[in-house]
Amino acid sequence: MLLFHVSEQKGLERFEPRPIDGSSEPCVWAVDDERLRNYLVPRDCPRVTYYADAKTSRADADHFLGRARAILAFEHDWLDRVRSVHLFCYELPAAGFDLVDAVAGYYVSRTAVEPLSVRVIGDCLGELARRGVDVRILPNLWPLHDAVTRSTLAYSMIRMRNAAPRAVSDLRV
Predict the structure, then answer these.
(1) How many Å apart are CA 41 and CA 85, to the nearest integer?
(2) What is the pLDDT of residue 173?
(3) H-only helix segments in 63-134
(4) Can you give the pTM of this predicted structure?
(5) Residue 51: exposure state from Cβ atoms within 10 A (0-12, 13-18, ≥19)
(6) 104, exposed or middle or buried, with CB in 10 Å at 0-12, 13-18, 19+?
(7) How far, in Å, are 56, 111, 137, 168 from residue 144 at the CA level?
(8) Are strands 70-75 and 133-138 parallel, antiparallel or unpaired?
(9) Residue 73's closest CA among 14, 159, 9?
(10) Which end of the chain, N or C, is less packed with Cβ atoms under 10 Å?
(11) Residue 44's pLDDT band (boundaries 50, 70, 90)?
């Protein structure tokens, strides 16, 4: 099993456990190779990612995916940043990591971890294409967010606090 940590910071030689939101248990977070695709954009970029799994209905797969294997959507306002960022993809040893979310591919270690290697990704869109991910660039993520959460798809919504505000027409009373 391959595990990774993606950062915009180069030269990381050791990952120390730390709380994510200030209240969680300190740990080192990693993602498996299959879901690495969800992190191939700048850290703060809001995104909606989804794919079909065993629980996904044929109708939802046809409607949301078509022939795509996986989708990563972000807002147009982030396009220049996605095109210009350099990401550092640190491969981490799998030993000592525990699976905490199979859909998202999240693993945690409660002890410090030293990376096995690092690879620079200078073309996020090219790397996503190489991994067979369809990219959708939208003016606003909220309509897609709402539709995907109501579907049977497997999904991950990341950094939505940084998304553009909902349009007035998206607000429900």
Answers:
(1) 8
(2) 45
(3) 79-84, 124-130
(4) 0.91
(5) buried
(6) middle
(7) 17, 37, 11, 15
(8) parallel
(9) 159
(10) C
(11) very high
User: Once rounded to an integer, what is the mean pLDDT over residues 142-162?
Assistant: 97
d(CA 91, CA 121): 13
**How far apart are the C-alpha atoms of 138 and 40, rounded to whole Å?**
17
Torsion of CA 113, 160, 19, 82, to 10 degrees: 30
Could you tell me the sign of the dihedral formed by the alpha carbons of 47, 52, 57, 61, in that order? positive
* Nearest residue to 128 (alpha-carbon basis) of 64, 88, 53, 73: 73
Average pLDDT in the 33-44 region? Answer: 97
Q: pLDDT digit string (tens) for 77-100? A: 999 999 999 999 999 999 999 999
- Domain layout of the chain by residue ranges: 3-162
Residue 66 identity: G
In contact, 47 and 158? CB cutoff 8 Å: yes
Does the structure show a pLDDT above 60 at 101?
Answer: yes
Supply φ then ψ for residue 95, to 5 degrees: -60, 130
Which helix H or strand E contains 145, and what residues bound it?
helix 142-149
Would you call 146 helix, strand, or coil by DSSP? helix
Q: CA 71 to CA 50: how far, in whole Å?
A: 5
